[in-house]
Amino acid sequence: MDSLTEVYQCEIKPEWVDYNSHLNDAYYALVFSLAGEALYDALGLGEQWRQQQNRTIFTLDARTRYLREVHLGAKLTIKAQLLASDSRRMHFLLYMYADDGKVLRATSEQVVVCIDPTVTRAAAFDTDAQQRISDLLQQHLHAAKPATVGRPLGL
């Protein structure tokens, strides 16, 4: 996992904790959303890119796996693994670690698409963005991919 990209850190706030005394599922979504934004920033796909290219990013699918509880005051580190990409989409996995960074607490598998907001339709990333995405994908190709990636949801 050393080849993954650290994209986000935060500490669990009191208002994020539920009646079970751990991180509420809605706040897992918030943390993973903020980490996704940080990944886009790391790829040069942040606010400046959105304005210059007249593009944005929409989430098409997201799946959270809750592996271990996270409690009040925990310091979270989120790492990203780009799994695949094409001219319009990215498929990535976000890993949530708490405190010592050794125990995986949750993952969020996501597929996002580049959008032309003037027509709200999929559009290609610009050439430079596609190259940055490709470069990161190359860095992550040798990292182990969890067996759960792409697995359908069911009982």
Automatic annotation (TrEMBL):
The keyword Oxidoreductase applies. Keywords: Oxidoreductase. Gene3D superfamilies: Hotdog Thioesterase. GO terms for molecular function: carnitine 3-dehydrogenase activity. The gene is lcdH_2. Its EC number is 1.1.1.108. This is L-carnitine dehydrogenase. InterPro entries: HotDog_dom_sf.
